[in-house]
Amino acid sequence: MSFFYEKETYMNRHNEKQTSYSLRCGRIIVTAIAAILILATLYSSFAIIKAGHTGVLSTFGSVSEDVLQEGFHLKAPWQTVTIVDNRINKLEVFTEAFSSDLQTVSVNLAVNYRVDTSKSYSIIKNIGKNYEEILVSPAVNEVMKSIIAQYSAEQSITNRRTISTSLIKELNEKLAESGIFVVDINIIDFDFNDTFISAIESKQVAEQEKLKAQIEQSRLTMEKEAEAERRIIEAEARAEVQRIEADTAVYAAERTAEANSKVAASITSALIEYLKWERWDGKLPSVTGGNSIIGFDLDK
What we know:
Elements: H1 2-43, E1 46-49, E2 53-59, E3 62-68, E4 71-74, E5 79-85, E6 89-98, E7 104-115, H2 120-126, H3 131-148, H4 153-158, H5 160-175, E8 180-191, H6 194-266, H7 269-279
Antiparallel strand pairs: 1-4, 2-3, 2-5, 6-7, 7-8
Helix pairs in contact: 3-5
């Protein structure tokens, strides 16, 4: 009997321990769940909006017009906050369009845009969080195709800055009402089919050859003009030398004639007689006759 009694006592004690252990585990689990729920409730009772962002508050799907600005905000646990990035965002868009001469133009664009803080509410309510995919990208594609169609493929290359400016203007006209503003657009690349690229390269080569020929022709023309001018200058120089020489000869002749005139004017009969007697050696002529002429050597 004592054996059965001890066995029963042991079983009762074991059951009591088992029950006590189960109760403790239950309390721990309940406490942990309660703590998790409390922490979750506390965590869902506030929102932190980072700089450059706004928060759109929703209550059971109903969007509030009160936009949360930067900083710490309290809210009900059942309310959700959708964060909107109001900084300048970059969107890269790849699109294909047809030029006015029906060439396929592949365009790679980098679009910088921002969302107006006052329009965060309406964007989330009317478009949703995927506004970039739903609104911005399709608008860029549409406007880009419209602008490229106004230019030939070759003009689209040379008018890249004009195309960017027109794209910014038309996109802002299209998106401004929604609260999205395009700040800048960079055309990263224009690409064309191989046939068009080959045609452009051939045209550039032809233009370069033409320019080279024009430069060579200009050089030859300048050389001929320089040679002609040099010959004119030489001819004018020779003419000037001849003129000077002629003037010198005329002047010398005039001086000689003037001197001769003065000498001739200074010779008188008395001077001639004086020179005769001055140069006579006192000897009479050795030849006499009725028609004889007595001569005097004036050089002696």
